[in-house]
C-alpha cells in the first residue's frame, strides 16, 4: 500500500480504495507513534528511541486486517479466536459490537471490552514486553460471539497492527534506568537474540510445519519475559 515493496495481486475492491487505505495506515501509524512517544518518556528512554524503530517508510510486519464475522447459529457459538497476545508493539482496533474479551492479570475470569462510539481499543503487544523487560504487559485476549442480542448481528472489525522494523532486536532497552533496574531485580543477564521479523514468523508459522516444530515456538510473552 505504501509502495515499499513490489505490488502483490489484490482484489479490485482494494485497488479502487487505495487512497482511503493509505490514509487509514498513515493516520493509524501516527496514533501509534503518539502512544510510543508517551511510553518512551515514562520509561525514561532517550528521545525518539521507540519511535525510531517504527518508521512508516521502513520494512516492517505492520498489517491491516478487516474481519467480517457473520452471526453463528445459536446452538453452535464458539470462540472465534483463542487466547493470545499480539506479535508486535501497538494494536489499534475499531469495532462496533462486543466479542473481544481480556484476561486481567492474576485472574481467570474473562471480561468483555465494550466498544465506545468514536473510540478505538488499544492493545500492547509482545515487543513492548521485551523492550521494557516486562514493565509493560502484553494484553492476553480472545474473540467470542458478541453477547446478548448482538450475537445475531454481523461483527465487523478493522485492525492496525504496528510492529518494530524487521531488523530490530527484541531485547530490553537498558539505556533506561527504570528498565535496567527491572532487569537487575529479575536477574536478566542474557537474552535471546531475535529480530522482529524472526519473532513474527516464529509466532505466525510455528504450528504449520511438519512434525519438528515445538508448540512453545508459537507462544508470546505471557507469563515471563524470557518465554518465546
The major β-sheet equals: 4 strands, antiparallel
CATH class group: Mainly Beta
β-sheet strand percentage: 15-25%
The total strand number stands at 8
Number of helices: 5
Order of helices and strands: HHEEEEEEHEEHH
* Low-confidence parts: 210-216, 224-228
Dominant shape: globular
Structural class: alpha+beta
CATH architecture: Sandwich
Topology, pairings included?
Elements: H1 12-15, H2 18-42, E1 63-69, E2 81-84, E3 90-95, E4 100-102, E5 111-112, E6 121-124, H3 126-131, E7 141-143, E8 155-162, H4 177-186, H5 196-205
Task: Provide structural commentary.
- The protein has 228 residues and is of the alpha+beta class.
- The chain has one domain: B-lactam Antibiotic, Isopenicillin N Synthase, Chain (Jelly Rolls), CATH 2.60.120.
- Helices cover 24% and strands 16% of the residues.
- The protein is built from 5 helices and 8 strands.
- The protein has a 4-stranded antiparallel beta sheet with strand order 1-8-3-6. Strands 2-7-4-5 form a 4-stranded antiparallel beta sheet, with no helix packed on it.
- Strand 4 and strand 5 form a beta hairpin.
- The longest helix is centred in the first third of the chain and has 25 residues, at 18-42.
- The chain is globular.
- The two termini are 31 Å apart.
- The model is unreliable at 210-216 and 224-228 (pLDDT under 50).
